[in-house]
Each structure stands twice: as C-alpha cells, then as structure tokens.
Amino acid sequence: MRKNLRILHVLSQLPEYTGSGHYVQALLAESAKKGHRCFLLSAGIDRWDMEGKDLPYIEEKNQIIVPFESRRLPFPIPGMSDVMPYKHSRFGDLTDKQMELYKEMFCEALIHSVKTFAPDLIHCHHLWLLTSITRLLFPEIPVVATSHGSDLRQMRNLPRFRGKVLEGCAKLNRVLALSAPQKEEIRQIYGISSDRISIVGGGYRSDLFTPKEKPEVPPVTLLYGGKISSEKGIPWLAGSLGKVHLPWRLIVAGRGTGQDGKRCVDMLEALGSKVQMVGQVPPSKMAALMGKSHVFILPSLHEGLPLVLLEALACGCSVVATALPGVLEIAKGITSSILETVPMNVSPDTVWAPGQESLSNMALALERQIGRTLSGESPPVPLEKLKNYTWESVFEKTEKAYFTALEETSPL
Predict the structure, then answer these.
(1) Taking the model in full, what pTM does it have?
(2) What's the rounded mean pLDDT across residues 177-188?
(3) Which of 58, 72, 89, 345 is the most exposed place for a label (fewest CB within 10 A)?
(4) d(Cα 286, Cα 274) in Å, to the nearest integer?
(5) What CATH number belongs to 6-203+390-407?
C-alpha cells in the first residue's frame, strides 16, 4: 500500500496571483483529498501576504515566505514573465549582487523548510533557477518539477542563466509537462530524456465553471481574461476589433503593469464605451463573467496549456484563440464553430503594429463567432474533451510521478 507523503512545494512567485500559483493551489487541494501533507515555500512581499491571504488546503504554519522588498531583499520579486500582475523585477535586469542575495535567501529558506518539514519529496515549479538551486542543495531528496511554459521562454531569451539552470535541472528525478508539444520542447532545451518527462496536463474547477443562461443579443458579449500586456496580444486584439462591424461589447478582466500595461489599456479604452474594464477578478467572479459572455478571446503570443480556455468552454462560451501548440492540443476534436484558432503572424517585434493580414485574420474569426451567436447558435459544452482535464486526473498522473521518483535508488 502506498504511503501518504510529505510534499514540499517550491514556487518563486506569489501563489495568489499567477497561473502557476493557482496550479499549486489545485495540487494542494487534491493532495489533501489523498491524505498527503503539503508544505509551501514561496516568494512574498515582506510580510504582506501572510495577513488575510491564507491559501486554502494549507495551514499558515506549513508555509514559509521569502520576503522581497525587505531589508535583506530590497527589490521586487523577479517575475517568470516580463509582465506580471503585480510589482516585479525582471531576471534579465538583476545585477550579480541581487542574484547572490536571491540565492542566499532562498537557500536559507529551503534549508529551514527541509529541516522543519522533513519532506519525502520536493515538487518545484518552473524549470528555472530556484529549481536548479533546490536540486543541487538536496541531492538526497527526490525532486520533481513542473514546467509552466514561461520557464522555456526565459531559457530562450536569457542565455546568461542557461548554465546555472541546466546544472541542477538536468539532474531532476522527474519533469512534469502540461502537454505533448511542451514535453518535446523540454527535451530539446534541457536535454532531458523523454522517459523522465511525464505529461500530466492541467485542469479546471468543474464545480465552479459551469454553463449559465446567456444574455439576449445583440450585442454579443466578448470576454478577455488575463494580464493586460503586449505579450498577451492586447494590441492585436484592439486593432482587430476596430475592423469588426457586427454588434459587440467587450469585457476585460485583468490588469496591466508598467508602461506596457498602460499602453495596452489606452488602446482598449480608445475603442470607446463598448469596452468595460473590470480589473483583476478572483476565480468565482471570472466564472460569473464567463457565464454571461458569448465569446471568450485569447490572443496570446505565448501559452503553455491555457487552462482559461477549458474554463470558458465549460461555461458555454465559444472561443477565438491564437493557434499555439497548447491551444491546438485543446482544440483537437472540437469543431471550429466552438473553438476558432487564428494563425499567429504576430511577434514581440510587431505586436504594437500588427500587419493587415494578422488584423484581418483575427477580425474574421471574431466576426464568425459573433455571427454564429447572432444567428442563434449555442455552442454545446464539449464534455468528452473536458473530462480529460479535471484536477483529479492531473493529480493522479502527478502522484504517479511522485512514487516513480521515490522508487529510484538515487537521484539521477
């Protein structure tokens, strides 16, 4: 009989406000159902997120926070993306001294966590610097790590850190990928053999994201939910909507930061009263917005496995999304009348001024979905597809990877 485990999760971001953080929270919930005991080491902002921000499924005594914007770490949390939903710094801008402080503080916290919690296994998030540090610091403890996609971009964009990342990540017991295309990308970038990479996927909360009665049309209600940033394709979306001549209104749920975010917000607001900005919202509010929306839009330039699409489909939305590998994996077996994919001819270099072909492709996809809604079509919820993306299913595969790592006689 397999025993209940003591699992230490390690996350270099704020767990409350990032996709990887929500993923960790889902794993904590599923672990609790199986009788495992979890602990969490994560980034924080001084003592800010220890008051009134308790995470479900884990007691405060089982959390350790590495405090940024503090006396010993006097700079914001380095984000796994260059645009984050909170104040942050960029890894590419960190000085050698800041990197020394980053490593020193996390090493102290890791040593304290392992001494306090005595984990059977460590589960790191992102194939990046902190995961490498963790693997090298505890060669005697099995370490598995999940790639959330942004780590792969950092490896491509920041060769300065490549050696440090590979030093530890190449020695991980198991790596968990969100999709088949991502597994291949991990193999190529990190040189990790395929037999050490498990595809575990991602999930959505089927108790929260359910179909609701949609409002009367016209207009057709469009919804965007996520960071308001150029890498999420906001300039592309704003430019395309100017070419859509059917009746629509757009709800934008999210927030932007810095000059990039401000510029994106300005572009959206320039579309006038048809755009409603509601700010960053919790999952319950997002589920309510999806329930009242007809079409969900994901114009991102980068995504791993976009769980937000699963949530939108579960709420009865039709979808327009960039034809990224993770999107195409979800789209398999779903008709285009439910999920329209748009070729991505936009790059970070052209995102602020997409070509006419790119704008037209997005506008035409939007018009097709808006037209279907106006004609009375109601997309069926693709239940057969969605049942493959429950958190219970994700954790079953994750747990299998845990026990595989534990059965190894020594770290690789």
Answers:
(1) 0.83
(2) 93
(3) 72
(4) 19
(5) 3.40.50.2000
